[in-house]
Amino acid sequence: MTTFASRVRTDPDYEPTLDEWNQLVLQGGRAYKSELARRTVFESEMFGMNTYIVMSMMEDYRKVPDRLRTILRHATAEELVRTGLPIGSKRSFINLAAMPLHYLTGRELYVDLGANTLADGHEDTLTVLRFWRRATIAMRTDGALFNMDAEPPDSSHVVGPELLGSILGHLEPNDPATTAVIRKFAARLTAYAFLENCDARTAVCDTGPYDLGDGTFLALRELCCDGDGDFPWLDGIRDTLPEHHFVLAYRLPDSVRMDNNVWGTAWFTPSDYLGDVLEARVFARNGSSLRALSQDEVVALTGHIRTAHRTLYGRLADTDPEQRNLYATQMYSWKLKAWARIAGCYDEIDWSVSPSIVSLYERFSDPAVALGLIGGVFVPADRDSCFRPLEE
Predict the structure, then answer these.
(1) 235 and 250 in contact (C-beta within 8 Å)?
(2) Which of 71, 67, 63 is nearest to 345 (CA)?
(3) Cβ partners under 8 Å of residue 271, min gap 6
(4) What is the pLDDT of residues 334-379, one digit of tens each?
(5) What is the pLDDT of residue 252?
(6) What integer pLDDT is reported at residue 38 of this predicted model?
(7) For residue 144, what is the DSSP state?
């Protein structure tokens, strides 16, 4: 007999009770707190990360529910997930997992600032949680909502057997020369993806381990640059890259451990896991297919990415700090852009940042103020979860 708990995880048409929603909220908040307790101070040479994190998550609380309602008038969560490949786009697992975490953080910030109570915005919160749950059920292949509940624990699986087989069929044996090419490409692309995203990891998503049953597993890393014109600070730069959406596939021995945190960032033991890779391949996503790249193409792309990175770094270094902060606030609060494009309603949504949020820059640019707010929400001393229960 199906239990209520399993229906919460696997049945999109089941409506959880308030107690069940709160179990999910508290469970996600506990994992979020545990992960963030490792790094309460967010550092960046270019961006005031604590400042833009606070501002963008408050913006999420204000804007995400209505943006979701617009999107859902055009397509269901399931339809949005099943359009195209499950990997290689900004409609990624890390994007989906971050959506409720950031929204609920915004809720906590407004409460801590005395602007709201926990009972405010109840239906808005359920709108976000319902979308996240239905989309996650459609996206994952392992019957889990959170990585810590998957099998094995701290894993995520979104690729089915057919696509997995296709990826495996294109892997090439690793050797020192291949390792050097892929290592250089991965380093360049990761650094560039972080800079595009204002030193956040929202464009880098890990899924796996995909157990291959022979003492090895597949690890997939998606790195997606802005090829759609989402980020205005990339105008004139994005077109210099011939490809924008990549999947790096590695077959590794079970002697390497892969752990995915709550939002989809992998940690490997040993940390220099590329030295243990048995087979690998770089893929570019084009529309609804993955194209395996040759070593020559990977080398050429590395050069393009290096040039784009230098150009973007120079542009951002010459940008006023307050404008850079606005870029970063926009970036972190634009997670739904990819979903809106798929739904065909991108132009129906106002993507500007709320004036009330923009006006907070002067206050929150004080590192002590921003850090104090982040510490109080991300690692609260009086509870084991970042998030307090929902109230009707």
Answers:
(1) no
(2) 71
(3) none
(4) 999 999 999 999 999 999 999 999 999 999 999 889 888 888 888 8
(5) 98
(6) 72
(7) -
- Identify which of 78, 306, 67, 92 has the alpha carbon closest to the alpha carbon of residue 185: 306
**33 contacts 374 by C-beta, under 8 angstroms:** no
* Cα–Cα nearest to 176, from 184, 166, 164: 184
Nearest to 292, CA basis, from 163, 383, 183:
163
Measured distance CA(84)–CA(24) in Å, rounded: 28
Task: Give the residue from 380, 335, 384, 377 showing the smallest Cα distance to 107.
Answer: 377
Q: Which amino acid is at 364?
A: F
Q: How far apart are CA 193 and CA 226, in angstroms?
A: 9
pLDDT digits (tens, 9 = 90+) for 46-71: 898 899 999 999 999 999 999 999 99
Under 8 Å between Cβ of 340 and 75: no
Tokens of 367: 């590192």
- For residues 328 and 346, give the distance between their C-alpha atoms in angstroms, rounded to a whole number: 20
The pLDDT of residue 4 is above 70? no
Take residue 146 and report the two structure tokens written for it: 């959170």
Residue pair 221/252 in contact (Cβ under 8 Å)? The answer is no
| Least confident span in 42-46, 283-287, 363-367 | 42-46
β partners of residue 221? 206, 248
Tokens found for residue 308? 């784009």
